[in-house]
């Protein structure tokens, strides 16, 4: 049975796309330009924090044991293993944002998207596409957050995610993130009706 999610507040947004496609960059920009409109669903993960990441803001960093316990207690809407680490969206993370009447933003992988589609959350699905696999690799390397092993795993997963992203009807919009400004304008234009609804 699909997990129950309370239909609170505005429709959430699900951002998906290969690691390095620019999801966090665009999410941060839209949240900063429209303060008070969006709230981020802070996921749980078993991966270690990167320099600059803040516990409770970027992720809830937890042990595998805690994560597994939470999942078996039914605390998560969805969860997945991505490149050897566990990630998951707790019901609380989404409900906390929805209760404040903000648009809840989820940043999740394609496994999570498939699971969310089986719930009553009814979000808008946005796929962030890099201009090419070569550019994706350059950007991931440039971010300097991954070991060579992790980078190769992420690039392998990216191929499958690109296929899922390009299948018709899996996403409400596919945004190619080539020039950052252009991708941001496209995102902003798409989201404007939802932003206006929350502001009014
Ligand atoms: N249009 C762009 N042009 C050049 N660099 C970009 C562009 N968009 C994002 N980047 C850079 O690419 C890197 C990856 O972006 P980002 O971290 O936002 O990706 P992500 O999709 O959130 O990745 P992950 O899923 O691993 O968290 C960052 O260093 C970011 O600054
Ligand atoms: N299914 C889920 N995927 C998630 C969640 N939080 C993040 N992610 C995705 O994991 C990868 C890797 O993220 P990173 O921060 O280690 O680079 C990326 O695709 C995220 O979108 C989640 O709660 N559930």
Which ligands occur here? adenosine-5'-triphosphate, the ligand Nc1nc2c(ncn2[C@@H]2O[C@H](COP(=O)(O)O)[C@@H](O)[C@H]2O)c(=O)[nH]1
What is the N-to-C order of secondary-structure elements (H for helix, E for strand)? EHEEEHEEHEHEHHEH
Percent of residues in beta strands: 15-25%
Number of domains: 1
CATH H-tier superfamily: P-loop containing nucleotide triphosphate hydrolases
Number of strands: 9
The percent of residues in helical segments reads: 40-55%
| CATH class bucket | Alpha Beta
Unreliable residue runs: none
Mean pLDDT: 95
What CATH architecture would you give? 3-Layer(aba) Sandwich
Task: Give the termini separation.
Answer: 36 Å
Q: Any idea what the radius of gyration is? A: 16 Å
Strand pairing plus helix content: what structural class?
alpha/beta
- The helix count comes to 7
By CATH, the topology is Rossmann fold
What form results from the Cα inertia axes?
A: globular
Enzyme class: transferase
Subcellular location: Cytoplasm, Cytosol; Photoreceptor inner segment
EC number: 2.7.4.8
GO cellular component, one term: cytosol
Task: Please explain how this structure is put together.
The protein is α/β, with parallel strands linked by helices and 200 residues long. The protein has one domain: Rossmann fold (3-Layer(aba) Sandwich), CATH 3.40.50. Helices cover 43% and strands 20% of the residues. It has 7 helices and 9 strands, in the order E-H-E-E-E-H-E-E-H-E-H-E-H-H-E-H. Strands 2-7-1-8-9 form a 5-stranded parallel beta sheet, sandwiched between helices. Strands 4-3-6-5 form a 4-stranded mixed beta sheet. Bound molecules: adenosine-5'-triphosphate and ligand LQESDW3C. The site of adenosine-5'-triphosphate has 14 residues, from helix 1, helix 5 and helix 7.
